[in-house]
Amino acid sequence: MITIANYIGGQLIAPQAGKYLDNYNPAIGKVYSLCPDSDAQDVELAYQAAKSAFKGWSETPVEKRSRILLTIADKIEQQLHQFAEAESIDQGKPYWLAKNGEIPRAISNIRFFATAAEHFASEAHPMGNHAINYTTRNPIGVVACISPWNLPLYLFTWKIAPALAAGNCVVAKPSEITPMTAYLLSQVCIDSGLPPGVLNIVHGLGTKVGSTLSGHPHIKALSFTGGTKTGAEIARVAAPMFKKLSLELGGKNANIIFADCDFDKMLAETVRSSFLNQGEICLCGSRIFVERPIYQKFKDAFVNKVKADLLVGNPLDPKTQTGAIASKMHYEKVLSYIDLAKQEGGTILCGGEAIMLEGEFAEGWYIAPTVIEGLPYNCRTNQEEIFGPVVTITPFDTETEVLEMANSTEYGLASILWTENLSRAHQMAGNLKCGIVWINCWLLRDLRTPFGGVKSSGVGREGGWEAMRFFTEPKNICIKL
Ligand code: NAD
Predict the structure, then answer these.
(1) Is 452 left (phi over 0), alpha (psi -120 to 50) or beta?
(2) Residue of the nearest CA to atom 6 in ligand 1?
(3) What's residue 403's pLDDT?
(4) What is the mean pLDDT of residues 246-273?
(5) Which residues are catalytic?
């Protein structure tokens, strides 16, 4: 049984109150490690450590900060197998996905921002011969980062890397459901010579550690990724304290398929965009709209491919395409949505149930990839975020109709469009109310692009200069000539 420690002031230490939470392996439904159940005392220790480290870190030449971050990335890469295995066991995702996708992306996040910091520049605004304005961008101080369980190390590093690169010190909280890779990262930071207190990782519950961070009077910026309800609660606490907030929240993304698309390419990618990581990616397209002339063809081919390709099983088995659902609570939530879909009149075309595996996996949390049709676009199943291996398919006749359906939810994170018609693609992309549109592709990510959503999917953008700007405070200086 591994006992996870907090990483505070450069050391791995037990929570002050000595309490722990059970950490489950979702593939077998059993506790396999203990996660600190930290509280306000631990957050305060971490805050004080970060505060003490801030002067030194913010004044460290950017080249040196960058070198330390690059060392951290290199050391994760050297331990790719250990990190990928830990992520797979902790979260339930297939090992191959962690090894080829998530952990390499976490490494890229760190490298990207380590080098971005060296190129980050600010503006000057000359006023003819009268005056010149120049803007400096300074680190904020101690900032907080809170991340979810679906892409644990990837989303954790997506926040801490720009925060650290910009010269801030960080108190970070990974999800209590998937604390393991952040714990492994702590040791890597120690081994890489990150000065004590620059990054502090406090494990525990959102209602204890997370809420202490959002209500901390001296933490002036908070970057959060997670559910919309949690985001609203954080904003309620943090906004009156005038904290800078970046909130990346839930989604209910539309995947719009026109009859003129490249059918084979679309089909393969739609299976991925529906079910990769058990559908537990905020960018998955969970509402699939198909132009009526190809609806039947799509339905038959899609259901056949989902049944044939998406083997559900032990996440560590290389043949597995769909692993376990990350927690029992989430597993029950996803199953309850499948029940709701049936009550709302939906027809289950495949899946629609939990899967009981054999032997040591008999108590794991598995759900068969599920495709549902026959539901109105405005029913709860089609409006609320399920965040699991469940998609609905719906036919449409016109662009106007599909836009209305696609834009009908409270969310606005991402959309996917399949068409070979260039003008239609541009027009549709312009009219979709969301922060990201993928045309004839999905999850093609350039880390320089703005990342985030509109409506209840969030406030602010991450990625590239957006993140560097978020984690710095601009100051304009005007000199009369
Ligand atoms: P969650 O909101 O339950 O938890 C996210 C984090 O917030 C966890 O670390 C949790 O401990 C913490 N937290 C919980 N209550 C808190 C509180 N009151 N104050 C401060 N922190 C608190 O979300 P989750 O279930 O871990 O993740 C799934 C959600 O994340 C989905 O809605 C998904 O769409 C969203 N998500 C969004 C993006 C994006 O980029 N927009 C990316 C990934 C996941």
Answers:
(1) left
(2) 148
(3) 98
(4) 98
(5) 248, 282
